[in-house]
Amino acid sequence: MRRIDLKEVEDIALGASLLGAGGGGDPYYGKLMAIGAIKECGPVELIGPEEVPDDAVIMPIAMMGAPTVLCEKGTGGNEYRVIYDMVSQYLGKKVYAVMPMEAGGVNSMLPIAAAARLGLPMVDCDGMGRAFPELQMVTFTIGGVNATPMALTDEKGNSVIFNTITNKWTEELARAVTMSCGGSVTVALYIMDGRTMKAYGVKNIVSRSEMLGRAIRNVKNQPDLTPQEAFLKASEGYGLFRGKIVDVLRETNGAFNLGRILLEGIGDFRGKKAEVTFQNENLSVTVDGRICATVPDLICLVDTETFTPVTTEALKYGKRVMVTGLKCYDMWRTQAGLELVGPRYFGLDTDYIPLEERVKGGGSDV
């Protein structure tokens, strides 16, 4: 067990924004919520998965909806207590700890804010190892865990608990309520015992986020490495393209941010063109028509000078970015994982090929 205080929040937010693969919401907004909660209620205890009793109730906390909407609509501050009371009353048992369900700018921060305001520990574990746009897209679905009972509330006080026959039905029904509530809500889902969390969770994701954030802050302080080399070494990433954003096509549809980014190469990539598609998170990247990476591997855009992650809602003309690929959690590369989050699920006309094989086969590496 260790404590998450204000300094740790800064690094976790930065690192989780990279693991969000372009999605997960604005890290600045999520960070403000976590910082405000810690200042009011004190630091949060971060516990390892193995410290959790097998029969303890673990409650993942997240926001659902379009991240751009959340940045404008905000939260009311009472959502965590509402959800805690709903879940405890429904189960007839107190919640032992909270945990994040994904890595990303907002959803890595909400559980910290919830833990601080509820006085509960947070588990160093999640259900993705990155961010995905739909709520059934978690490793716990592969393990047969039900998303329901799922508690949902908005900033106005509207609340509901779902019981559904499949996790896909949970996504459909909760998405409809989310739209009725203005496009973003706070949820608790995949409520599970400690034994299940240990078997199917992505462990040490908060610690990894903190390490990545610290590394990004220090990329220019490595005496034997260039900043780019330091970043790629710390992230274990593959440099796929460097370019200037020349067009961004974006729309909000069904509580998703959808679109594509067009880039013109700079430096060693001058004369080449790249395209990145996204649905909240980046889905694919092609260079001169050749696919370099697809989901479920992580496709991350970072600033070429600071290596700070650039989320999909922060994309703008003229920004210079490096497109970086990170390997996904191994469970996503299984047949069951690819059925949930593989490229064909998102409408991409390609089978999944692991990132490192695409790079070895002639993909770019800056």
Automatic annotation (TrEMBL):
SUPFAM superfamilies reported for this sequence: CV3147-like
Residue span(s) of domain S-Me-THD-like C-terminal: 166-355
Superkingdom classification of source: Bacteria
InterPro entries in the cross-refs: S-Me-THD-like_C, S-Me-THD_C_sf, S-Me-THD_N, S-Me-THD_N_sf
A matching Pfam family: S-Me-THD_N
Residue ranges annotated for the S-Me-THD N-terminal domain, each copy included: 8-163
Name of the protein: DUF917 domain-containing protein
Lineage: Bacteria, Bacillati, Bacillota, Clostridia, Lachnospirales
